[in-house]
Amino acid sequence: MNSQSRRDFISSVTVGGGLLMNEALQAETDLSGKNWIDAHVHVWSQDRTLYPISANFADKDIDPPIYSPEDLAADQKGTGVARTLLIQMSFFEFDNSYMVDVIKSDPDRYRGVAIIDHEQPGTLEVMTSLKEFGVGGFRLYAFPDKVKKWDASQGLQTMWKAGAETGQAMCCLSDPAAIPAIKAMCKKYPDTNVVIDHFARIGVTGEIDQAHLDQLLALAEFPNVYVKISAFYALGKKAPPYTDLGPMIKQLRDAYGSGRLMWASDCPYQVQGDHSYSASVDLITKKLDFLSAEEIENMMRGTAEGLFFS
């Protein structure tokens, strides 16, 4: 279902500000009590006046042209997912206003991970002010060309140090090659929570490289490191039901325990083409027989709740 179809669907069942619940819609709410959390979603508006994109991006870079909270709600409907951790979208760069406005619209449903310019003065003040708006972490582009500059960046060092004081996580979008640099920061700032996005993108080539996975597994020695089990559409065979990722998830479960793993969709990219939101949810909740009910609950709710919603 594309974005327009989702909006049309919502409009067709809305009466007087409430949803008209027929039998089919009632059946979709069977999982509503789960209160699961999607720990990685990007949303954005088409309103370029109120929410302008960075000068470093162009409209042609934005695909799909819109992914709104309403689109997300339509994708999540009936899946048991009721809360969402929003990740600042790259084409807004350091202007987190749209994400913050979405959080303000329903703070029980949303929390956020922001992007800030740590090379500008006042890093700690910016972190603290954003925390008041439900921002529980900061996205870092932890790629080889970026991490080699970390030691020389006073602002970046301030972020890592302050994260332990403010309770805000360093959320790293990483390639395997950057894991050693992340490990060095974990040693330097052991009290700071660190979240590795999308399995450190292991499997993006189509193959799960065990040497790369071993590096990620080794980070489990640091008790404040967490891993997002996410972006299934982009890893391994890149096709539902994504069960080829099961062995990697099992090794991570064994190393970290389910209490340091959190599921996420990476919408809107998880709902393009042959991929779907429910297929992403189902991998964790239905397709992996090595996960216990408690482990599923941790990965679908407990871990993200403790880090970002408590």
CATH topology label: TIM Barrel
Care to count the β-strands?
10
Mean pLDDT: 91
Radius of gyration: 19 Å
> What percentage of residues falls in helices of 4 or more residues?
25-40%
Work out the strand percent.
Answer: 15-25%
Model regions low in confidence, pLDDT < 50 over at least 5 residues = 1-29
User: Kindly, what is the distance between the CA atoms of the first and last residues, rounded to a whole number of angstroms?
Assistant: 33 Å
Task: State the order of secondary-structure elements, H for helix, E for strand.
Answer: HEEHEHEHEHEHHEHEHEHEHH
Can you tell me the CATH architecture? Alpha-Beta Barrel
Helix/strand-derived category reads: alpha/beta
Helix count from the secondary structure assignment: 12
CATH superfamily: Metal-dependent hydrolases
**Biggest sheet: strand arrangement:** 3-4-5-6-7-8-9-10
**Basic shape:** globular
The profile of the biggest β sheet is: 8 strands, parallel
Count of individual domains: 1
Identify the CATH class: Alpha Beta
In short:
The protein is α/β, with parallel strands linked by helices. The chain has helices at about 5-10, 25-30, 70-75, 95-105, 125-130, 145, 155-165, 180-190, 210-220, 245-255, 275-285, 295-310; strands at about 15, 20, 35-40, 80-85, 110-115, 135-140, 170-175, 195, 225-230, 260-265.
